[in-house]
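Morning!

This is the sequence you dropped in the shared folder:
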Amino acid sequence: MKTMGRLFGLLFVTATLAHSAPLKIFVLAGQSNMEGHAKVETFDYIGDDPATAPLLKKMRTADGSPRVCDGVWISYLTGRGENNGEGFGRLTTGYGSRPNPTEDGGKIGPEFTFGIRMDEAFEEPVLLIKTAWGGKSLFYDFRPPSAGTYPRTPEDIERDRNPESGSGHYYRLMVDHVKSVLADIPRICPDYDSAQGYEIAGFVWFQGFNDMVNRNVYPTLPKDSRENRFANYSLWMAEFIRDVRQDLAAPQMPFVIGAMGVGGAKANADNLQFREAMAAPAALPEFKGNVTSVPTSPFWDEPLAAIQEKYEQVKQMAHLLKTQNKNHANRDGRMSPADQKAWLQEFEADLISPAEVALRQRGASNAGYHYLGCAKTFARMGQAFADAILNLRNDR
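The structure's back. Tokens below.
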């Protein structure tokens, strides 16, 4: 009996020590690719590659259903327009893009494997606070306070867009939501021990597409210019890091910049310049050892992208037929809509094989600017973001 009593006491002490550390909180923020547009139906594709098959096993239970993390909770603020709402609970799938902010959207973003990795790394509970909205910019929507109010351009005024009142609106929503969660952590994370407190253990920023394609705020430079036309993004990103650390009272909070990787190695010059501008703040002396950039181009799925390019050719051909392009089949305008449809079907069948159709259905679920909605891509990115934060923490 004494042996059993000692064993019980040892188990009790061990269990107590396992949670005798502050709750680890990670903030994830950005636009549509932080939301995540990878449908759960594309999970099987992850298992086709021996290099990522082990990751898929972590994402599922033995019966093949999506994993529910015992030690990770999430609060997710998102929405469309002014229709914002919060979804929360134990981390599992469905915390990607959501038509209804409070309901499972059937998709994942980087948060799923990010949380799984953190669940492995920490004995204590983990809380993810995610704020993401599609189609948002750093120069306007997430504009940090230190950058001042966005100065409208003549084109903004002409098109009646980007009013000064909206400058930094989503930055404020993000910070206000984080503070709201911190004010009542047990609402989201029942395992929270107030005696141990919490630590804001890292921040991941994954955004960029709307800045990258904007030529109003980032005008094209002369061909002989050696400057990066996205240099202001680097300045605003650095200000964002400083401001969010100050607003969350976390001056040394590890910060990860997820650098745009759409297009992979075949990206155009503007895309490559933008990647450099995104990563640039990590090289500033003040951020040495506490800010890093993670390139996401290595996770771009080249086989799926090659198939997607063929579908884009079909789409372009449909336009050429409809507009009676002089170099194509309907140059004389004699083809009816039914004729055009039949011609396109034959064109597509000759261009895209049944095997390619099947592969695309298995691995892709969205457009190229959403990384093809490929769960393999988002899963690898989430894991890479987590590892980057853990490396920053270990190097302190």
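Headline: Confidence is low (pLDDT under 50) at residues 1-18.

More detail when I'm at my desk.
O.
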